[in-house]
């Protein structure tokens, strides 16, 4: 058994050991104490479990399946059918307003996880707008929507196993106009469009007899995911956190500063972006990634997926012809027909790839707009 010491971002991974295809980690998770010790314990244990999955290469899409069970206060948790098999709480303590939970976590990463068998799928992010700008008056955090969008973008780019951000658009996202949405996605090489709104930034005063009064502030947001191929809404969810607002009521707070993001409130907002990213993983990671043909020249085909999507030299892909049509009601119906044509990756660029057609006599039948799927070795 080999042991390694590693360092995590929001907690401390004290010890990591590998044996066969399994790993166990002793991890310390951290969470601010606000509502109660039990809530802080849950958040800290979730943090430790998430860090363990991330660093061991386990499928983080399965994290949401075990979160409800971690809400029960126990010393040990057993799971089956998941990358996490066993969680044992070793100790917990409070310090400087934070809860620290140290746990031993047994992880069994699977080679058949969706993110290991698929290319990363492109996401176009829309700006998160403030529903009620007057909610931002305390602290003058009127730019929080732009900064939240940038934070979610970094969360996906750095932590997501299944997605890459193709771009951020200021074009209004209107699910009621599916044709416009598909054109917008196509222009940005995005398989999905993701956006939302910040719905609540109100505050409440927690009056105390001994200490100074504490201001608690809400952060609530919505999230929706649109299929870039059809314009359909695939996923919607609401998120809410409440945390201490540690700044003076009359101060102007810079939401781009480390002081803001390292505060209790800033950490709560970061937790929402993490939960959004995890929900995307859970809902969409096993959907097939669909690189598109963008150019054909003789026996060479170029597609709109490259190094950032996880394409490797020698990969083999299956071609699907686009056979969409307009029905008698004037509604566009997408339809893909699988072919016997396979292609092999020859040259990889940052966001595109050149492939050779294995059946050279069939190359003339390939057209821009055709889709491909990665062939999986069995």
Automatic annotation (TrEMBL):
<keyword id="KW-0969">Cilium</keyword>
<keyword id="KW-0282">Flagellum</keyword>
<dbReference type="InterPro" id="IPR032386">
    <property type="entry name" value="FlgT_M"/>
</dbReference>
<feature type="domain" description="Flagellar assembly protein T N-terminal">
    <location>
        <begin position="23"/>
        <end position="109"/>
    </location>
</feature>
<dbReference type="InterPro" id="IPR038165">
    <property type="entry name" value="FlgT_C_sf"/>
</dbReference>
<feature type="domain" description="Flagellar assembly protein T middle">
    <location>
        <begin position="113"/>
        <end position="255"/>
    </location>
</feature>
<keyword id="KW-0966">Cell projection</keyword>
<keyword id="KW-0732">Signal</keyword>
<feature type="signal peptide">
    <location>
        <begin position="1"/>
        <end position="22"/>
    </location>
</feature>
<dbReference type="Pfam" id="PF16548">
    <property type="entry name" value="FlgT_N"/>
</dbReference>
<feature type="domain" description="Flagellar assembly protein T C-terminal">
    <location>
        <begin position="298"/>
        <end position="374"/>
    </location>
</feature>
<dbReference type="InterPro" id="IPR032388">
    <property type="entry name" value="FlgT_C"/>
</dbReference>
<protein>
    <submittedName>
        <fullName>Flagellar basal-body protein</fullName>
    </submittedName>
</protein>
<dbReference type="Pfam" id="PF16539">
    <property type="entry name" value="FlgT_M"/>
</dbReference>
<dbReference type="InterPro" id="IPR032370">
    <property type="entry name" value="FlgT_N"/>
</dbReference>
<dbReference type="Pfam" id="PF16538">
    <property type="entry name" value="FlgT_C"/>
</dbReference>
<dbReference type="InterPro" id="IPR038180">
    <property type="entry name" value="FlgT_N_sf"/>
</dbReference>
């Amino acid at each position: 058994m080999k042991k390694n010491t590693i360092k995590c971002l929001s907690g401390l991974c004290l010890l990591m050991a590998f044996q066969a295809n399994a790993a166990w980690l002793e991890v310390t998770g951290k969470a601010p104490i606000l509502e109660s010790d039990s809530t802080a314990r849950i958040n800290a244990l979730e943090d430790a479990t998430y860090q363990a999955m991330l660093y061991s290469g386990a499928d983080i899409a399965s994290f949401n399946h075990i979160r409800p069970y971690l809400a029960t206060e126990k010393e040990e948790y057993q799971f089956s059918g998941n990358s996490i098999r066993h969680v044992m709480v070793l100790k917990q303590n409070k310090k400087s307003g934070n809860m620290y939970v140290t746990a031993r976590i047994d992880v069994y990463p699977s080679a058949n996880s969706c993110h290991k068998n698929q290319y990363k799928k492109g996401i176009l992010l829309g700006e998160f707008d403030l529903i009620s700008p007057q909610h931002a008056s305390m602290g003058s955090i009127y730019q929080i929507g732009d900064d939240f969008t940038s934070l979610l973008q970094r969360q996906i780019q750095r932590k997501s196993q299944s997605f890459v951000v193709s771009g951020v658009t200021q074009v209004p996202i209107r699910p009621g106009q599916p044709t416009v949405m598909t054109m917008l996605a196509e222009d940005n090489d995005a398989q999905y469009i993701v956006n939302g709104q910040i719905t609540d930034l109100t505050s409440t005063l927690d009056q105390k007899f001994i200490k100074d009064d504490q201001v608690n502030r809400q952060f609530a947001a919505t999230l929706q995911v649109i299929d870039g191929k059809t314009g359909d809404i695939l996923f919607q969810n609401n998120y809410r956190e409440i945390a201490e607002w540690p700044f003076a009521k009359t101060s102007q707070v810079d939401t781009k500063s480390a002081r803001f993001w390292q505060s209790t409130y800033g950490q709560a907002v970061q937790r929402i972006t993490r939960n959004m990213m995890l929900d995307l993983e859970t809902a969409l990671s096993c959907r097939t990634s669909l690189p598109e043909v963008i150019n054909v020249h003789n026996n060479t085909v170029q597609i709109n997926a490259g190094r950032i999507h996880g394409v490797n030299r020698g990969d083999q892909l299956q071609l699907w012809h686009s056979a969409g049509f307009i029905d008698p009601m004037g509604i566009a119906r997408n339809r893909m027909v699988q072919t016997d044509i396979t292609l092999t990756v020859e040259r990889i660029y940052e966001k595109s790839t050149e492939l050779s057609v294995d059946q050279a006599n069939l190359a003339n039948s390939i057209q821009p707009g055709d889709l491909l799927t990665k062939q999986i070795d069995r």
